[in-house]
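Hi P.,

Sorry for the delay on this. The queue was packed all week, but I finally got your sequence through. Input first:
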Amino acid sequence: MRKNTLKNKLLAGKTVYCGWLHIANTWTAEIMGNSGWDGLSIDMQHGLHSIETAIQMMQAISSTETIPIFRSNWNEPGHIMRLLDGGAYGVICPMINNKAECEKFVGATKYPPLGYRSLGPTRIIDYAGEDYAANANDELLTLAMIETLEAVENIEGILSVASLDGIFIGSGDLMLSLEAAGKGMLFSQCINRIIASCETHGKIPGIWCNSHDMAKEMRSKGFRFIAVLSDSMLLRAHTQQLVRTLRNNS
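Then the structure:
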């Protein structure tokens, strides 16, 4: 089976950088894949992709060295299994709030006896190899999103799920959850608690960052799976800056 270089770097203690795809287009996916990211996440929750477009984008990414993964639209086993069969090498699952939800998520990504994933590898064997089914449980990356105060309070239980590789903090939603609970100032404390719990359980800590400065700060705190902005955000910011520059110089 083709090795999951993204996961192997993480298991070796390295930091990886993951691009984020909102735009439902194979060419932009190919451009991002050739840009040097360790992995690219197709965002099925807030991106504009259909499952067909997502698989076509994974085909485009497969022409590069970058590893294709996705954020699922929800903790829906059938949806997760189809995208894995379509060529993804990892899953980020949103809104995991407790151990039971995490077990449901991870179980959908693992073949028996570790989980309940249905066998039907369709396209993935063309990308990964004919021995995919025998090795997929080891190679696929599983990250549970921590996005609420409830999830932080249940972090020990979530991280106790054996086949979970790590967590991925949805920083925007976590801040929103804390503000709604009147605890907006606790974000840094939550970050520290999650990092410490990941170290205790031997799990990978990941986070989404809205800038280079935030990514640098989070890396210094110990995060090793770092996603920064998205294709649409990068295009919007660069285009707006270019237009402002043109108008100011005219």
